[in-house]
Amino acid sequence: MPQPLVADAQPASADENVQALVLRLSLPAAGPGGEYDNFFVGIWHPTRRVIVDWQGSGPVPVAAVHGHNWMLVSAVSPFHESGGLVHAAPDRSCGVAFRGYVCDPALHSYSPGDSLLRYWTGAAGEHNGVFSAAVIGEQGTTLTLVTDVLGFAPLYYRHFCGALIFSTNPRLLAATGDTPDLLAWRCLLEGGFIASERTLSSGICRVPAGKSLRASGDSIRLESWLALEDLPRGDRKLDEAGIAEVERSFQQAMDRCLGLQNLQALLPLSSGHDSRRMLAALVQRGSPFHALTARVFHKGRDLDARYAAEMARDFGVQHTIVEPADARQFAIQDKVRRLLTDAESGMHSWVPGLMRGLPASGTMVFDGIAGDILGNPGFRIPQLYRSPASDIEIILDVSVPNAFGHLLSPDSWPTAAQVREDLRSYLQTLPQRINLAEFAFILLRQRRATAPWSQQLLPPGHVPVCPFLDLDYIRLLLSFVPQDKHATILQRRCLAEFWPQFYRYPGTRDIPPDSVRRSARVDDEENLACLRALRAEIDSAGARQELSVLLSTYGRIAQRGSRLSRHVALRTGWQFQPLMELVARQVTRRDCWQRIA
Question: How many domains does the chain have?
Fold first, then answer.
């Protein structure tokens, strides 16, 4: 049996135990192949002693530190002496859990614990990096939760038994009596992302972008360490000098990332422009690195692996291609994706396959996220960028199309209009100016749907680094007029002007006419395998009724038809799969936190 983690160095008296908050923490199961995200989880109580009887999950190694009224637990890296993501002062007067990196000074998940404690217990001002941090300070009397300026590194929290519990993954905060947040469910179904700081469970929230949540005594408050309002307004005209400045700023961001110590550089290489810009920077520096490509199919065409292999060969780059799984294995990868992202994103089912190709060493994994979006605003709608009020209406129309209304029971679900109003409320908290739509795309689709590929799916020992999210680069790119960036397409322009030898390759942005589509039957088999796996999970949990009650009469008929007919399953799968993912998540979740006394 696991031993309780008692937050005191001395044996407790019977009277002290009566006053203690005694809990059990059961870490959830790993994926079907032992997959686990690089998590940390913790608890802090403002006044009471905390005793936690914690149980690991199978072979997943775990590190823990604790004080009188707090505890921090994390996964352990197989490649670093520092091991886990949690650290405490020798006298346990303070502690820190940290995942990600900052650039000044250069620190990452596996930097020495004393350096991380020194930085975070004295942290003030701005933090240039992508990270989640939980800081216990002032002899355990304060807790601070903080995330990066655009909130790409996730950090979640909730109230529990008078304490705050927090984690990099919401599934590690599950507790008895949790109910689904159907407003978040409906938003995810309609738009492909969860709005604002909601999660799929009521009562569990995400720390907002650029914020610190500070708790002490009975006080909990959110503070901005860098307010979105203080970022540029998007009113600078983009000219030739500006384009050159963009390239210089990106190169400086790459240098900052490469300044992280004791990590090997790894580039997930696609044929996209953001990936090629990072490739050019690494090749130009002569930096040792390895490139890794998953063979995926864009609209049925194999482009990434084909042109990544050509670039790697031509520039002498060590390169590995991870071949696609068959339909059965793809469904297993899809389950891993659902598990480790807690079903918050429907993207990236190919990523668990890519992770099998990671080297057996600690790496910094270059994530090109936000490169295209900052250089060419994400909502490519001609009517945008006229006024904040009109932009909000356009974003709402695109994001909440009411595509699921006919399938869902009106007795169980919030309406599309309610989702629209909730999303409107969030959009109205963003800077109300000409680049509002840029903030919206980054903070909704990029942060909540795209970012999990590296933030949630990378295993322990590896650190995602995001040069396009460098603070100076963000400031510069947001300063330019959005319409100018649309007209220029900065990623393409910088490649063509400064790196023509890399720009000349075709890819997903320039699909060559000789590219051949793979058989649609392969896609069909993958989709059907995922649907069958979801049905099996729901059925084995005895939860058909839980799914049925969420459906309208039409939805129930269509669902029965999809079980009986391959044709109906393929036609309706794009709608039923995300809904079934949410139901499967709900009925297979296991409580992590329980109160014992």
Answer: 3
